[in-house]
Amino acid sequence: MQDTKKDNPNQLNIEISDEVGEGIYSNLAIITHSPSEFIIDFIKMMPGVPKAKVKSRIILTPQHAKRLYKALKENVAKYEQAHGEIKDPGGDMPFNLGMPVAQA
Question: What does the domain layout of the chain look like in residue ranges?
Answer without folding.
Answer: 16-83
